[in-house]
Design goal:
By secondary structure, this protein is an alpha/beta fold. It contains 14 helices and 20 strands. Helix content is 29%, strand content 21%. Helix 6 (199-204) links the parallel strand 11 (195-196) and strand 12. The chain is globular and about 65 Å long.
Length: 433
């Protein structure tokens, strides 16, 4: 990946922002800015040329929920390797969660992450802690972190458990115009659950986490959002009742938004049995039932669920290669997110291409108050080039993350990102054969 200020993209199909996705055209980028859009453009001496051969192009995708582990857990992932995975998955921007060591609870840690990512093609936006050291007791320095570049606040990995602390957090964050992203979990109900509590957990003899542990905390936060006027963003929603709670909150006009991870609208708790306790299907919230999976798709379709994310959570081989009950929760997801969207949402006919892209482009940036990268003359070029029909196998050698904890390794997938442009740089994804 090198500096590519001047580039001609040939034979691309722009989608979104008024484009119908059928017209093949060319896009000229000059000094990192979209200069011309026309099917009659010809190459110039000073510019590089990339023939997309009819691939789609959209504004760059964003994942607003990733864990890049740096600082403190670089054996799992670094900002550099996390950005490498994001690029392969088609994401030009990500927002990283604060459960690092030290936690992202002061401005200096926010600025450390911003500085470390300056030379990456991917824009990395830190999410600051709600509470100091994620301890849940006292509010972190929100205003200072915002000035340093934080885009939201969360204690993700743990909920903001104390209701008074959550109330104060919402009051402060609303003055800053920023959301609180809460990990919705009633810890007294959920622990020590290792999977979803239900028929499968009973059959397997594993202690489970009931869906109500998520739903009770969501209900509390919706009430606090109504009381304070603050913006609650429900992280990684996973149950039908949880979606219904958010749906009703939106109907009342409350400032409540939510996201769903790709694995939560693709896999069910039956995978734990089918895969014989493979720790690569252990995550939190846990994989739920088929009815919950169906509810995620319904919520995406009707707009209740605003955003598609991954909760990209790298863990080392040593951490995951243990008995199921001792393994940490989480899987990597940036590499495979688009293929899951294609298979479960597009090819199934559940959603149109433009509907899916809205949840990867505009919606996460609206929630985080970031500029939306429309494909228009004069706009800064922030682009993802992709297809929806290419079959490829996710070999271990293709994993771009530093970690390998994915249930999709070895599977044949459909649809992938082929190239990206952002920050004056162009990168093409090349799969090994």
């Amino acid at each position: 990946m090198t500096e590519t200020p001047n580039l001609l993209l040939k034979q691309v199909k722009p989608v979104g922002d008024g484009f119908d996705g059928e017209k093949t055209t060319n896009i000229r980028i000059k000094d990192g800015v979209i200069a011309e859009i026309s099917s009659s453009l010809e190459p110039r001496d000073e510019e590089e040329v990339f023939d997309a051969k009819g691939a789609y192009v959209s504004g760059g995708w964003m994942d607003m929920h990733v864990h890049f582990r740096e600082p403190g857990y670089e054996h799992k992932e670094t900002i550099e390797t996390g950005c490498r995975s994001a690029m392969f998955g088609g994401f030009t921007e990500v927002a990283c969660m604060p459960n690092t060591k030290p936690a992202i609870h002061t401005r200096d840690v926010v600025e450390f992450i911003k500085n470390k990512s300056n030379y990456q093609l991917v824009d990395v936006h830190p999410i600051g802690c709600v509470t100091k050291e994620r301890a849940g007791k006292s509010i972190a320095e929100m205003s200072d972190m915002k000035q340093g570049g934080a885009v939201a606040f969360s204690d993700d990995g743990d909920p903001v458990y104390n209701s008074q602390v959550m109330r104060v957090a919402l009051e402060y964050s609303s003055m800053l115009g920023m959301p609180i992203i809460n990990h919705e979990e009633d810890l007294d109900l959920s622990r020590p659950g290792h999977m979803h509590e239900g028929v499968v957990s009973t059959r397997l003899g594993l202690e489970g986490t009931p869906g109500i542990a998520e739903e009770i905390m969501i209900a509390r936060d919706i009430m606090l959002a109504e009381f304070t006027g603050g913006h609650v963003h429900v992280a990684h929603i996973s149950t039908r009742n949880a979606v219904d709670l958010v749906r009703r909150a939106k109907a009342k006009g409350l400032n409540v938004t939510t996201e769903v991870c790709t694995h939560h609208f693709d896999l069910t708790d039956e995978e734990i049995d089918r895969r014989h306790f493979d720790t690569h299907v252990k995550m939190h919230p846990p994989l739920r039932t088929q009815d919950d999976v169906d509810a995620m798709v319904e919520g995406l379709k009707d707009g209740t669920i605003d955003v598609i994310c991954t909760d990209h959570a790298p863990h080392s081989v040593e951490e995951k290669e243990v008995e199921f009950i001792y393994a940490p929760n989480g899987i990597i997801g940036l590499d495979t997110a688009w293929s899951i969207c294609v298979n479960r949402l597009l090819k199934s006919g559940e959603m149109e291409l433009e509907q899916i892209l809205e949840k990867l482009i505009a919606k996460p940036r609206e929630i985080l108050n970031l500029e939306i990268p429309y494909i228009k003359k004069g706009n800064k070029a922030n682009l993802t080039l992709f297809n929806t029909d290419e079959e490829w196998t996710y070999h271990p050698g293709e994993v771009r993350s530093k970690s390998k904890n994915s249930p999709y390794i070895g599977e044949t997938l459909t649809g992938r990102a082929i190239a990206l442009y952002n920050k004056g740089r162009f990168a093409e994804n090349r799969l090994k054969n």
